[in-house]
Amino acid sequence: MTSILVTNDDGIHSQGLVSLANALEGVGEVTVVAPDREKSAASHALTLHRPLRLNAWRDGYYMVNGTPADCVYLGVVELLDRKPDLLVSGINRGANVGDDVTYSGTIAAAFEGTILGIPSFAISLVGSQPYDFGNASRVAIKIAEKILDNGLPKDTLLNVNVPSGEIAGVRTTRQGKHIYEELVHEGIDPRGGKYYWIGSGEAPHVDQGADTDYMAVRGGYVSVCPLHLDLTHYEALEPLRQEWEGDLEEALKVGRSL
């Protein structure tokens, strides 16, 4: 039977996770391994300096006191008796578009699945409370079926964003730019010590190209954006070879500090 591993970064108690797992039960045998608490913006961190605990929560659901990437790694390497046929991360509460992919624990879980050789996708619901995960769950089912039938290109995962409300259609997109304003809240704790709380403000710098993930969901479309493990900027290779290598090698020869 088809084996599906489901995870997220909003934690084991997230309704988006439960909705996703329930929806995918019609596609295959679902196992859920998720953080025991919210781990939003955890990115692709692995826990290396303390022990992790993998505990059963309820039938088919397991929780880990670590990051989304920890959950995927433990689920694949320790929990399951074989590598799953598919990994799905979500349904995230809120968008993961543009530069969000750098910070997102939801997407990092799908990256970890891809590194481990598992076809993977991340799915997020664009909107705010109260969340209705119905459309996103239905999109997840269709994408899961397409991937299981057709596979994905090597080292490639999908970042899927589903708008709340009425859906205008589906667009295959590129990652846009979606940079938030710098925002830090400063305060004083009960013992008089100063603390800082990093927040997220508005996003005044937006790539408004029609083919971007941000503009697709803004127009009411489901965004399906392929992401690749190889982060090399190939267009920069030759200029760097021509303009940097010689100077750096010369500096080494004469003993100057780099």
Summary of the model, kept short:
The protein has 258 residues and is an alpha/beta fold. The chain contains seven helices and 13 strands.
Anisotropy-based shape: globular
How many H/I helices?
Answer: 7
How much helix, percentage-wise, in residues? 25-40%
Strand order, largest beta sheet: 3-4-2-1-5-6-7-13-8
Which runs of at least 5 residues are low in confidence (pLDDT < 50)? none
CATH topology category name:
Stationary-phase Survival Protein Sure Homolog, Chain: A
- CATH architecture classification name: 3-Layer(aba) Sandwich
Structural class: alpha/beta
CATH C-level category = Alpha Beta
Order of helices and strands: EHEEEHEHHEHEEEEEEHEH
The biggest sheet, with number of strands, parallel, antiparallel or mixed sense and barrel status, is: 9 strands, mixed
> What is the rounded Rg?
20 Å
Total number of distinct structural domains: 1
> What's the total number of strands?
13
Distance between the termini: 56 Å
Strand content: 25-35%
Mean pLDDT: 91
Provide the CATH superfamily: Survival protein SurE-like phosphatase/nucleotidase
